[in-house]
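re: ur question from yesterday

yeah so i grabbed the chain u mentioned. its 381 aa long if i counted rite. heres the sequnce exactly as i have it in my notes:
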Amino acid sequence: MTEPTSPDASLARRRNQRLALLGAAVLVGGAAAAAYWQLHAQHYVSTDNAYTAVEIAQITPAVGGIVAEVKARDTQAVKQGDVLLVIDPTDARLAVAQAEAELDRATRRVQGVVATDASLIAQISAREADERRSAAQLAAVQSDFDRARLDLKRREALVDSGSVSGDELSRARNAATASEAQLAAAKAAAAQADANLRAARAAHEANAAQISGTTPATHPEVAAARARLEQARVDLSRTVLRAPVDGVVAKRAVQLGQRVQPGMPLMAVVPVGQMYVDANFKEVQLGKVAVGQPVALKSDLYGSDTVFHGVVEGFAGGSGSAFAAIPAQNATGNWIKVVQRLPVRVRLDAAELARHPLKVGLSMSATIDTRPQAGHAVAAN
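ran it thru and got these C-alpha cells back, copy pasting raw so excuse formatting
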C-alpha cells in the first residue's frame, strides 16, 4: 500500500519543476541570443549620433557695386544658372568701352610702328646715297686742292727768276686757300652724311625691336590691351550672380540698393539633392567598418517608417576632440579615458532624397552592415 504524499514534498516537487523549466528557458534564451549575435547582430554597428550635412555654395560677388536687383529669397528653390542677384552694370560697361578704345589705340599705334619701319628703311637708303655723294664730292675737292697746292708751289719756285708776276702768284695763293676751304667743307659734309646714316640705322633698329617677331595682332601691347578688354567683359558678366548648383536659398544678407564689395557673403545655396550624413561612431565600433559598406538610416523628421539607404563614403581625418578649438590636454595627472567618436561620411541615395528631402543638421540614426560586400573597397580605418 502506497504512502500518501505529504504537502511539503508535493510543494518541493512543483518548485523543482518550475526551476527546471526556468533554467531550460534561460538556456534556450541564451542560446538564441548567442545565435542571434553570432549570425546577425555582430555584423551591424549603429549610432543615433548622426546628422545631415552638405557642402553649401556661398554666393559672393567678384566685383563691387550697387545692388540693382535681388531675385532670390530665403527658402526659395533655385536651379543651376538661375539669376540670384544683379549688380548695377554701368561702371562695368564704361570699363568695357574704355578697354575697347585702348585696344583700338594700341592696334593703331603698332600699325604706325610697322609703317614707320618701312619709312626708316627708305631713309637709310637715302642716307647711304648721301654718304656716297659726299664721298665723291670729297674726292673731287681733294683733287682740286692737290692741284691748287701744286700750282702754288710751281709759281713760288719761279718768282725769283721773274717768270711769274706778283699778281699771278697772288691768284695762285688765293686758289689754294679756296681749295683748302672747300676741302674742309667737303670733309664736314662727308662726316655729317656718315652721322646721318648711323642715326638712321639706329632709329630703324630701335623701331624694329618694337615689332620684331610679332604682327599687329600678336604684338605684346595689343595683347595686353586685348587682355584688359577681356577682363572688363568678364567683370561685366560678373555683375549677374547665378546659382552654381540646384538647391535652396539660405542666409540671404543683401538688400536692394546696398553697395557690395568683392568677397562679401550675400547668400548661400544649399544643394539639398547632394545631402550626406556625418555619423559619429565610437572608435570601438569601427574595427570592421569599410568604405563601400551599406548603411540603413532613419530620420527623426520622417520617423522609423521611412528608411534611407546609403553607402560608407569615407572617414574623417581625426576625432572631433582632435579638431576642437581647445583640444583636450591628456598629458595630465588626473587623466580619465574617454571613448572617442570618429565621423563617418555616408552618401545617400539621390532618388530617395528626391522623394523625402532632408535639410542640413537634422538628426539621423545609422546602422552599418559590416559583412563583406562583393566588390566593396578595402577597409579605410
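noticed a couple things. The helical segments are 7-39, 90-158, 166-211, 220-237, 350-355. also The first helix runs from residue 7 to 39.
anyway ttyl
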